[in-house]
């Protein structure tokens, strides 16, 4: 079946970020290449060695499952084997309701790294942050635990409790969290009317109803006179349905505009998705977008992204940026630019599946998103004092990540310098969309034509950042020397006065 005929949806919770995938029937393919006999002999020798000498007895079934899991998971961070339970869990996650905590995670050598907490979930309400590393789950260390097993531990029946130990940059001791699992049903789209006739819409995840809810909220903003400008917030959005992302783009772009293309090894992996009904047909999106206010095509837009904006959110940001339809503001996105295809396989009464990376995503201008992400037009920090301390991670930091094959851009010129330029004592707390949201404030300044406070370091070439930092270090040294000199002078003066007083 052609990829354009597939039902595309999210399936990447265990891989760390949600990714567009498609179901298609699996059929064995013959190959003209001969079997690698030496490698097969090696496999059987290792298999027999484990059977004969391992300290505990292991069944053939377990060993073969371990071998399959290792074969697939070693390819890249988003390919993996799904046993019957894993396949069932994935189906629950992609249909938008499951018992859990509401976080997107990936594997880290120190444990389980949080890519993003989902809005209005137990994790978000408890204060779990993007970049946190979960080191223990109910007392069990996660460093050597397979990611699938860690995810299974975190999921469970709603209203059951779970204890997490979390390492966080800037904290000397591990943080302890006790959370109560809940049925995760996220509200994809939220709207807020701001001053000066400007609207704010946050998309926390791309689901079946996202394009429909976006259209409804845009109509409400237009009716209330709050569509003179629009802030579209995609921060911490881990992705979701590809069809929903195309529908969101279709709300703001002319019909038939290119949205995203995919390229892989097989001809059926190559396709250009456009702002047409056949590519965003999901739920009531077609009907909702046909009734959308025409003003949505012309309203000035600022899109907010950060390092936890991934997959479908990067597709939207990249399309609006390439078509010069919006100004992108914030930090460079995650860089999840690959397509996963689910290949279900039924053996007797059991259904398993292999989730394989089959293609890469490209923006309308042909830029690869993979391991690079979307660079904002305006780099703006989390707070007026700088960025929060975080174990920041992107696709390029993940082991075995798929390479970006484009060689036409120098890394120094295109990627920000990600150093520890963080707020030393983060006393500036906020939630997305509130009055203390610094990036939102700068987005409003951009829409109003006022000055935007840009990041001091982000977005600058590495050589420039190093020069700026060296200049600041020299200034700090000079300041410290002056303070020491002043302190010494004051000490000397105080000593003289004490001697005079004693003599008197």
Automatic annotation (TrEMBL):
Residues 1-19 form the signal peptide. Gene3D superfamilies: 2-enoyl-CoA Hydratase, Chain A, domain 1, 2.30.42.10, 3.30.750.44. GO terms for cellular component: outer membrane-bounded periplasmic space. One of its GO terms (biological process) is signal transduction. InterPro entries: ClpP/crotonase-like_dom_sf, CtpA/B_N, PDZ, PDZ_6, PDZ_sf, Peptidase_S41A, Tail-specific_protease. Residues 467-487, 494-504 have a biased composition (Basic and acidic residues). Keywords: Hydrolase, Protease, Serine protease, Signal. One of its GO terms (molecular function) is serine-type peptidase activity. Belongs to the peptidase S41A family. This is S41 family peptidase.
């Amino acid at each position: 079946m052609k990829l354009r005929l597939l039902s595309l949806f999210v399936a990447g919770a265990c891989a760390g970020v949600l990714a567009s995938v498609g179901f298609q029937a699996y059929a064995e393919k013959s190959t003209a290449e001969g079997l690698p006999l030496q490698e097969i002999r090696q496999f059987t020798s290792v298999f027999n060695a484990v059977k004969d000498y391992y300290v505990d007895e292991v069944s053939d079934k377990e060993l073969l499952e371990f071998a399959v899991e290792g074969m697939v998971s070693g390819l890249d961070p988003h390919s993996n084997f799904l046993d019957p339970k894993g396949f069932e869990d994935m189906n629950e996650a992609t249909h938008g309701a499951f018992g859990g905590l509401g976080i997107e995670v990936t594997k880290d050598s120190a444990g389980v790294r949080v890519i993003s907490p989902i809005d209005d979930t137990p994790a978000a309400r408890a204060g779990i942050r993007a970049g946190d590393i979960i080191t223990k789950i109910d007392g069990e260390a996660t460093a050597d635990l397979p990611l699938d097993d860690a995810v299974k531990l975190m999921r469970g029946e709603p209203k059951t409790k779970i204890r997490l130990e979390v390492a966080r940059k800037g904290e000397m001791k591990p943080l302890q969290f006790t959370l109560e699992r809940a049925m995760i049903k996220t509200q994809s789209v939220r709207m807020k009317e701001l001053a000066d006739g400007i609207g704010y819409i946050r998309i926390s995840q791309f689901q079946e109803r996202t394009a429909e809810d976006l259209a409804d909220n845009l109509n409400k903003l237009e009716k209330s006179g709050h569509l003179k400008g629009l802030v579209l917030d995609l921060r911490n959005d881990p992705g979701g349905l590809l069809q929903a992302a195309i529908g969101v783009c279709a709300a703001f772009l002319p019909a038939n505009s290119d949205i995203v293309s995919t390229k892989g090894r097989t001809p059926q992996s190559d396709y250009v998705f456009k702002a047409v009904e056949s590519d965003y047909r999901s739920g009531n999106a077609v009907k909702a977008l046909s009734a959308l206010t025409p003003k949505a095509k012309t309203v000035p837009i600022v899109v907010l992204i950060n390092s936890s904006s991934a997959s479908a959110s990067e597709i939207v940001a990249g399309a609006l940026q390439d078509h010069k339809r919006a100004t992108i503001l914030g930090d460079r996105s995650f860089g999840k630019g690959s397509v996963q295809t689910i290949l279900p396989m039924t053996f007797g009464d059991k259904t398993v599946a292999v989730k394989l990376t089959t293609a890469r995503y490209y923006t309308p201008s042909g830029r690869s998103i993979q391991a690079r992400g979307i660079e904002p037009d305006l780099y703006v920090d989390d707070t007026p004092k700088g960025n929060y301390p975080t174990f920041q991670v992107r696709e390029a930091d993940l082991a075995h990540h798929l390479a970006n094959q484009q060689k036409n851009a120098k890394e120094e010129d295109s990627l920000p310098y990600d150093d520890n330029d963080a707020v030393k004592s983060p006393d500036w707390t906020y939630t997305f969309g509130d009055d203390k949201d610094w990036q939102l404030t700068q987005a409003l300044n951009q829409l109003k034509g006022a000055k935007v406070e840009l990041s001091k370091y982000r977005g600058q070439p590495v050589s420039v950042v190093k020069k700026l930092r060296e200049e600041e270090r020299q200034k700090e040294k000079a300041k410290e020397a002056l303070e020491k000199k002043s302190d010494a002078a004051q000490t000397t003066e105080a000593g003289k006065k004490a001697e005079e007083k004693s003599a008197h």
